[in-house]
Amino acid sequence: MAGVAGRDAGRVAGKVALITGGASGLGLADAEALAAEGARVVITDVNEEAGNAAADRIGANTIFLKHDVTSEEDWQRVIATTAATFGKLDVLVNNAGVVVLASPEETTLEQFRFVNAIMNEGVFLGCKYAIPEMKKTGNASIINMSSIASHVGYPVFFAYSAAKGAVRSMTKSIAVHCQSEGYGIRCNSIHAGAIETPMIQSAQGRGPQDVPTGPLPVDGVGAPSDVASMVVYLASDESRFVTGAEMLLDNGLSIQ
C-alpha cells in the first residue's frame, strides 16, 4: 500500500488512533485527517468491503478490523489487535452510529434497543476496554461522537437523541474518572449539527450535495471535514487542557 504524506510529521505524529464506523461518512473523514497528520490508524466497521477499501486508500500504517460495537468480545479483540499491531492505543474515536426516524409514540422497543446498543452501549464498551490500554501511554484522548440532538428537541430522532444524551453524560463521568485516577486520558464529546454524510442524506431522503466553502447560512449543512478538524485537535496534544468538554459544531443552531 502506498504511503501518505505527513506520516513522519504532523499534529498527531506517532499516535495510534482507532475509529469505529470508519468505513464511510464522518468516521472515514476522521481516519483520513488523522492519517494525514501522522497517526497510525485502525478503522473498524461492520462493512468489511468498504472498510478494507478505505484502509487501502489511506495507505501504509492503516489497517481495517471488522467490528460490531455492540459485541463485548469484538471490543476485546479489536483493542488487543490494535495493541499487538502498533504497540499501543493513544486515540479512540467512538463514531459508529445509526439513525431511526420515529417519534416517541412511533418508536418500537426493538428500534430503541437497536439504536442504543450501538451508540450507548457501544460507547460504554469502547471506553471500558480502551481505558486499560490507553492509560499505559499516560497521554491519550477519547473522543465520543454525540450530537446537537442531545441539546435540542428532535422528536423524529427520538431513539437517536436518547443514545446521544447518554454519550454526553458518559463522557463527563469518564473524563472525571480518568483525571482523578491520574491516567492521563482526556475524554471529550463532539456535538455536530447536520453534516453532509450518507446518514443525513438518508434522513432527508436525498442524494449527495456539495457543501460550499466559507461561512454557511443559518440552515447550512456542514462538511465531514468540519468534524474531522475538531477530531484532530482533540486527538493532538494541542488540546491537553480540554477534558469533559462539549464541542458544539452546529453553525449556531443551538443558540438560534
Write the layout of secondary structure elements.
Layout (H helix, E strand, L loop, with lengths): L15 E5 L4 H12 L3 E6 L2 H11 L3 E5 L5 H15 L4 E4 L14 H26 L5 E6 L12 H23 L4 E8 L5 H7 L19 H12 L10 E4 L7
Parallel strand pairs: 1-2, 1-4, 2-3, 4-5, 5-6, 6-7
Helix pairs in contact: 1-7, 3-4, 4-5
Walk me through what this model shows.
The protein has helices at residues 25-36, 48-58, 72-86, 109-134, 158-180, 198-204, 224-235, and strands at residues 16-20, 40-45, 62-66, 91-94, 140-145, 185-192, 246-249. By secondary structure, the protein is of the alpha/beta class. It has one domain: NAD(P)-binding Rossmann-like Domain (Rossmann fold, 3-Layer(aba) Sandwich), CATH 3.40.50.720. It has a seven-stranded parallel sheet, sandwiched between helices. Helix 1 crosses helix 7 (224-235) and helix 4 runs parallel beside helix 5. The radius of gyration is 17 Å and the shape is globular. The relative contact order is 0.14.
Using brief descriptors, characterize the structure shown.
seven-stranded parallel beta sheet; disordered N terminus; globular; 7 strands; Rossmann fold; 256 residues; single chain; alpha/beta; 41% helix
